[in-house]
């Protein structure tokens, strides 16, 4: 403590203060804004014009990228040829990339080289009165004037073109998720599975003998008649609805059997849709000791021993079960299609379901 008694750092001299009065509590007074350093484009009209052309060029690259996307989307016809699919994917990817990159770099380069870069400090005011509203309009007009968008028509026009065209690839991609007119719950209720259709391995198409499936194993299967679907896009659409996971456990480990489903399994072999009932991710992880199936997207967990009941996660209903049997040659076959729609629980699903197998 010594001669400075109370140990107050301000009284002991340990803290150096500057200024008088209220500002004396701080070691360094507010130095204010640093002096503005003009850029080359601020002082050289030729440099400013060069920067303007560079910004316009970047916007044109964005426009060209959108055109490349359209070429890949409309001009490349999909077929069984993988080269065409790869070409289309390349054009779509490059097109979207250049469209977004050109637009983003153009705006950044414009801001760094041509827009005013003076630092300003302005107190915030509540915009309540008509006078304040007019002041806000004046500020907006000043911003537009300072940005140079009014006196630089080359930048303005290329920016408008790039900004209008750049979102179109995303709009077309979202629209192309499903082109059919009958999309809805009824469509998702039906898949390629029907009575007598064999379960085959995905992707080899090899039929599966029940005797070859060991206890604790799981395999991904598709309907044998998938190969009969013509058209690459249609085949992918049907496969997305029809993919199934088959697991085998000891028959006495199956804890729950709903009345009417007693013949849906065979000697501990049970099958379900792979499409998660949350948002449609593929359920592909099987833990043999707990008989749990895990969706890797949001960790929804289903119990195969309890007819794929949800035991954890955001999924709202069990995975639809596929009724299966064995034909005369010992191969696994479907007894019927799924008795409920596969995939996520949409808002259309509710108590009006005629079979009453599920709730929203």
UniProtKB/TrEMBL annotation:
Region (Disordered): 1-48
Gene Ontology CC, one term: plasma membrane
Molecular function via GO: 2 iron, 2 sulfur cluster binding; metal ion binding; monooxygenase activity; oxidoreductase activity, acting on paired donors, with incorporation or reduction of molecular oxygen
Keyword Cell membrane: yes
Composition skew (Basic and acidic residues), residue ranges: 1-11, 39-48
Keywords: 2Fe-2S, Cell membrane, Disulfide bond, Electron transport, Iron, Iron-sulfur, Membrane, Metal-binding, Oxidoreductase, Respiratory chain, Transmembrane, Transmembrane helix, Transport
InterPro entries for this protein: QcrA_N, Rieske_2Fe-2S, Rieske_2Fe-2S_sf, Rieske_Fe-S_prot
Pfam families: QcrA_N (PF19297), Rieske (PF00355)
Topology relative to the membrane: Multi-pass membrane protein
PROSITE patterns cross-referenced by the UniProt entry: RIESKE
Family membership: Belongs to the Rieske iron-sulfur protein family.
Described purpose of this protein according to its UniProt entry: Iron-sulfur subunit of the cytochrome bc1 complex, an essential component of the respiratory electron transport chain required for ATP synthesis. The bc1 complex catalyzes the oxidation of menaquinol and the reduction of cytochrome c in the respiratory chain. The bc1 complex operates through a Q-cycle mechanism that couples electron transfer to generation of the proton gradient that drives ATP synthesis.
UniProt-recorded name of the protein: Cytochrome bc1 complex Rieske iron-sulfur subunit
């Amino acid at each position: 403590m010594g001669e400075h008694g109370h140990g107050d750092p301000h009284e002991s001299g340990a803290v150096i203060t500057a200024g008088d009065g209220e500002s004396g509590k701080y070691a360094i007074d507010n130095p204010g804004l640093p002096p503005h350093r003009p850029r080359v484009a601020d002082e050289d009209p030729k440099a400013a014009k060069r920067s303007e052309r560079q910004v316009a060029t970047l916007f044109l690259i964005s426009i060209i990228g959108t055109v490349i996307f359209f070429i890949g989307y409309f001009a490349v016809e999909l077929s069984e040829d993988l080269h065409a699919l790869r070409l289309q994917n390349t054009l779509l990817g490059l097109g979207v990339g250049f469209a977004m990159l050109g637009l983003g770099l153009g705006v950044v380069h414009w801001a760094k080289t041509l827009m005013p870069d003076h630092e300003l400090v302005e107190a915030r005011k509540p915009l309540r009165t008509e006078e304040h509203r007019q002041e806000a309009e004046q500020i907006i007009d000043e911003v537009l004037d300072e940005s140079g968008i009014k006196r630089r028509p080359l930048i303005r026009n290329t920016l408008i073109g790039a900004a209008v065209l750049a979102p179109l690839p995303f709009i077309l991609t979202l629209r192309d998720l499903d082109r059919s007119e009958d999309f809805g719950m009824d469509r998702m209720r039906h898949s390629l599975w029907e009575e007598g259709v064999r379960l085959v391995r995905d992707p080899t198409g090899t039929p599966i003998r029940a005797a070859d499936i060991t206890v604790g194993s799981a395999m991904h299967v598709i309907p044998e008649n998938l190969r009969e679907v013509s058209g690459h896009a249609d085949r992918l659409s049907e496969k997305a609805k029809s993919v199934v996971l088959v697991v085998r456990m000891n028959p006495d480990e199956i804890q729950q059997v709903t009345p009417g489903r007693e013949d849906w399994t065979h000697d501990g072999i049970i099958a379900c849709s792979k499409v998660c009932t949350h948002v449609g991710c593929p359920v592909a992880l099987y833990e043999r000791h707990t008989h749990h199936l895990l969706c890797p997207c949001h960790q929804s967990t289903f119990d195969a021993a309890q007819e794929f009941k949800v035991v954890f996660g955001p999924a709202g209903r069990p995975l639809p079960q596929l009724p299966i049997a064995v034909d005369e040659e010992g191969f696994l076959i479907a007894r019927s299609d799924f008795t409920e729609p596969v995939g996520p629980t949409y808002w259309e699903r509710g108590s009006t379901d005629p079979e009453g197998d599920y709730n929203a």
